[in-house]
Structure formats: structure tokens, C-alpha cells
Amino acid sequence: MEYHITTEYDGKPLRDFIRRSLHISGHLLARLKRDEQGLMVNGERVTVRRILREGDIVSICDHPDEDDAPIEPVDLPVKIAYEDEFLLVADKPPFMPTHPSHDHHYDTLANALAWRHRGNGGDAPFVFRPVSRLDRNTSGLVTVAKTKYAASRLNAVMVSGGFGKSYVALLDGVPPERSGIIHTGMRRTAESIIVREVCPLGTTGSEEALTKYEVVEISPDGNYCRVLVTPVTGRTHQIRVHMASLGTPVFGDDLYGTSSPLIPRHALHAAALEFVHPITNEQIKLTSPLPSDMAELYEKLFK
Hints:
The chain contains six helices and 15 strands. The protein is of the alpha+beta class and 303 residues long. The longest helix has 12 residues.
């Protein structure tokens, strides 16, 4: 990554530029210092004490950590909604885990992107850095950073609330209010390490969970609805737990509602994403159409 120095940093040390403009973490900076090509000005390796001049070109070379776990490349179909040199946004299909786990080593989004990286002639080892994650059975947009620096900047955007992410869900029932905000605590249930439940804010062992929702359409028979959901926080299973807490679980959710022969998963899709690119400052707006199984379910429920 290259940056052209302007008048603002003329006569100031590289350290100031790194801290104020690049917002590089101390951990990443320490690694860049160790790398022969980590920090360079006009093609010359330098220290953070180097005094900058207007017109200088600062180069940051972010190589992967040696101890990053390798991801096995596997030829799996995946659509890319957006990509540049810093990040990509994948449109994850349903039934695909985001990252490898004990039971999923070769069928994940990480495996698919590792294959794609190799096919594109990537000269550095592939490192999977998801900034957001989706449950295996939730489809839609997933943001992935290409470098540790980009991951740091993207995570900062997410923590500050700069990611606007919206989901489409089909619900089994209709909430009592057509729109609302669900603001609760959320914690693991005593019986499971997977299942979550709502609880009063401030309960020991809980985390704050905030979800906004709007009913967009009600089925002709009045038994189902289509909602647009925006999670402000990002707790595990947050949307599914919050919708179930209203007595209207996501259709087909076998964990917080009832499974259905009409669809083999919960009907939840990450459909829209909006954020300001943390490096280029470009306004990014992306959408993903409903996958075929949810589109077919919609036709059946809403005629």
C-alpha cells in the first residue's frame, strides 16, 4: 500500500503519519518494523523517526503472520459482490460455514476464497480475515479483509457502528408492532453452549443486544410476514433470538422456532450492506437478492 505525503505531514516524523492517518495498531506496527519491506519511504527502508517531506511516498507492506493457520483451497462456488486490493465482500450461499471448524474443514467460505486466491495468482499465502460472520444456514453478504491493516481499520469501523447491515427474514407469525427496537441482554442458556436467550440488561454473564426491525409485508392469510432487520450489535444468533422473543421466530428455525418441510433452514438472508471504505473513503453500498430457496418459500407463503 502506498501513500503520498501532503503538506499536512511535511517536516513531521513517520510515526505521526502512521498514528494519525493510518491508525495502525501497536501489534501490527511492531511486525512492520521487523519486516525488511514493512516500512519504506521512496523505496528505502526507514524507521518511524524518519522526517517526511511533501511528495514522499510511504509504502506499507503487510505480509501474513507466519503462524496464521493455512486454509485448504477447495473449488466451491461463491459470488463476489465487491472487491479491491484491501477487502472483498462475498455473497455466501446457504449451508456454507463461514470458517473452518471441528466438523467443517473443506466446505467453508474460507476454503472457497483460498481456492480463488490461488487461481488469481496470489503470491502470498492466503489468510482468511472475516470482518463479519454468518451462521452456516444464513445466506448473504460477508466482509473479508485482505490484509491485517485492512482488518484493523474495518473492525474499527464496525465497532464505531459504521457498518449498516440489513437482513431480510420471513417470520412464522406477525409481531404485535409493525416496527420496533428490541433492546435486551443476551446470554448462553444454562443447558447449552450454543443456544442463546434474552435476559434483562446488566444480567451477570450477558451482553447488550439491540435490534431494529420493520414489517414490510404480511401474507394474505395473516400467518407470516417479511421483515427488514438491522442488528445494531452483533451477538451470536441475535436476530433469531430477538424475533423468537416476540413470539414470531424466523420461519424454519429449528433452534428457536419450528422446522418446516418447505425450507431446510431458517429463512434469514444478509441482503444489504453500506459503509464508508476505511482506506479509500469511498461510499460502498451493496445488495444481494434472495437465494432461490427463500424466493420459493416467499412465493408459497405470500402467493
